[in-house]
Amino acid sequence: MEIPGLDVAIATTTFSKTYDIRAKLAVRTVKEAVRCGYRIVVVDGGFDLAFRNDMFLAGAILVDETERGMGGSRRQAMRIASRLVGANGAVVWMEPEKHSLVGELWKAVQPIREGLADFVQPARKSLASYPPYQQTTERRGNLGFLAATGIDIDVWFGPRVIGPRALPYFLDYKGEYGDKWESVQIPILRVRAAGLRIMGVTVDYTHPAEQTAAETGDAEMDRKREAQIANIIPALQREAGILGLAGSSG
Asked: How far apart are alpha carbons 81 and 33 in whole angstroms?
């Protein structure tokens, strides 16, 4: 059913110990969200007062983290955003650095507004703007997701556009597989198993050049990306088996 007046809010999380590159990008994302007419909920678990002040002045709905951990804080942000938009609204989960995506979100929201999808995964045209090692791990991640689930979407691109029927699957996730990066992946499988409609929509996105420069060749970030693979892929495989989802041949 078409939802012509669909209300949309963005949810994100921050944990800035210092006012670093990512923190500056987060402020830019908030400004872009406000410019485009979105309310943006930011759950912050950090303690840099200058950063928090700038986020507030930029227009963020800034909330202290009370649900600890990666998965918990994400659900906290999405839950607050869901209250803003009401029972028939949509919530966009996204990482706080992706300011260039904000102006493109309307493309991913439109299928939900038109009643064509319950969940939309934005898809990148290219990974060329990312650090080389990240390009490799994200391709591996997408292939692993496809092999485990039979769902061919750019799921290693973090943002999610979640319609009202799909949102409970994200909010009700209990962290069964560690409650880290998989906290916004496992719910997608449950959305599919429930018979809801999943769609991928291509958007114009360029990774921030300053973030790419800072993370290229960063061994700690490379280890983090391997940890993401190690957390998510086994969880997907196990959950897909429990739900009876077909693999890539399905």
From this structure: 14
